[in-house]
Amino acid sequence: MFKRKPLQHAVAVALLVASAGGQSALADDRESLEVLRETTLNLIDALVDQGVFSREKADAMVKAAQVKAARAATKEKPKAGAPVRVQYVPETVKNEIREQLRQEVLAQAKTERWAEPNAVPAWVDRIKIEGDMRVRYQPEFADSKNTEAMDYIIAAAGNNPTGGEATRAAGFLANNGLAATGNTREDRERFRLRARLGILARVSDSWSAGLRLATGNTNERVSTNQSLGQEFNKYTFLVDRAYIKYDPAEWLTVSGGRIPNPWFSTDLVWDEDINFEGFAATVKPTLGEGSFRPFLTAGAFPLREDNPPTRDNRWVKGVQLGAKWDFARNSRLTVGAAWYKFENLEGRIEDDTAFLAGNPSYGQYEYGSGLRQKGNTLFRTNASSDRTPIVSNPNPTIWGLASRFEPINLTASLDLAHFDPVHVVLTGDYVKNTAFDRSEILSRTGLNLADGKDYGYLYKIMVGMPKLAQRHDWNASFTYRYLGSDAMVDAFTDSDFGLGGTNLKGYILGLNYGLDPNAYLGLRWMSAESIESFSLNPNHRFAVNVLQADVNVRF
Q1: What is the phi/psi pair of residue 401, to 5°?
Q2: Long-range contacts: 434-438, Cβ < 8 Å, 24+?
Q3: Which end of the chain is least crowded, N or C, by CB within 10 Å?
């Protein structure tokens, strides 16, 4: 595994000098050469003990060196009667040879790290393994005044003020028939597990790679939780991240693949578990003494590949300008202004000819059940020949997004560390969908939408240690959030508050306490209710309280 030619060469030279010197050196040099010989043999024994090479290989090296020395002595043996000339080697020269050999051996030992106690190969320093595990108890308390799931079917069939077939909670509906699939009134109790294992590799000074595996399933991009109660069946361990990162300079980072969230954001817009598929670049110039550090991030992420004639591609593109400012001792302000654009995600009425001809492109405008959560305004995109009432249509209802999405997002966080290690962190977030246009929605979908909100905001105060690393570390927080129905695509927002999605408002209380180094207990109480009706019937409501009690460890 390691190259040892320089070392073997040095040892062989030392043995050759020792053996040949015994044949030709003057009597007063024999003692020093014997010391050199013993030192070399002891060095070989030490290398064997360290596991650098085996005893058999060491013995072979010594024997080979002795054979070479014997041959050299035979060749230089003077003829009978001829005068013997012994070249005098000054003490300074011998010391120089010894020092040169010693430095060569030590240099290789340092490079390959085989002379250090309990040493590991140098490549191990370029690999970092990290992970975490969490066991959670999660009871969910539905409000007894919530609208029955069956009422969502009636409202979606057209019994709503828009005059069209629409809903904000397609998950509460059956695709057809009279069965309701959602739960709106029953309490639920779950035990959940999350496990993540990541590898970070520094390939060179400029290139690195990351890989992380996590529990979860392929239908929940905003959650890596695995619910217990699978009849002891094994869990799925999925690729959560897989990316390459290029850092050609301190001020530039480029990454591609399935990458961590590149944006400065909160879970008002992007769930904390979401990762992005695509490419992002961040420019981070340093100004002055480094107290003010601006950054610019741009990214492009395909949601669906282009596959003509069946499907058009879908993209999320964005750009964010921000800065970190250490404006005073123990005080830091971080701000960011972002603009995102979701391309080809809005729904359209399907072509009747495509339906009648059985064209595979039929259904391409769907906002699928595997993607959506709840909250966004949806309308029925089925073609006219496929528009018998929802309750009697043998074909599935194809739901599409009523609004287009081009949200702007303003985020700020102020970290006050005057009482370090206790910090006070104030966070604010605001989002507005600049593409929400009721007249455009009416012309494209036929929905005369009177309600619906295109904005959202969050504010949070946290007191304590930002990162729980030691025993008795703690932090407590209060958060209030308000996220309108069409402020952001509900597929990517927080999956815990209100059981996920948009059109929700309420508060969150949090408390974390360090049980031991890298082990802590977490408690969260989330109280959420609908801003406007999920069924578009103004008399309908939805509310749920969620408790999360976690034991977390990381390594």
Answers
A1: -70, 130
A2: 434/406, 434/407, 434/408, 435/403, 435/404, 435/405, 435/406, 436/403, 436/404, 436/486, 436/487, 437/403, 437/404
A3: N
Residue pLDDT, tens place only, 141-199: 999 999 998 889 889 988 899 988 999 999 888 655 455 667 899 999 999 999 999 99
Q: Which amino acid is at 396?
A: P
Q: What is the structure's pLDDT at 85?
A: 61
CB 400: neighbour CB atoms within 10 A? 23
Residue whose token pair is 């695709």: 175
Instruction: State pLDDT tens for residues 332-368.
Output: 999 999 999 999 999 999 999 888 888 888 999 999 9
Reference 381, options 408, 406, 405, 361; nearest CA is 361
Residue 368: half-sphere exposure toward Cβ, Cα within 13 Å = 8
DSSP assignment letter at 467:
S
Instruction: Tell me the residue type at 514.
Output: G
* 3-state SS assignment for residue 135: strand
Beta bridge partners of 28: none
Residues 6+ apart with CB under 8 A from 235: 193, 215, 226
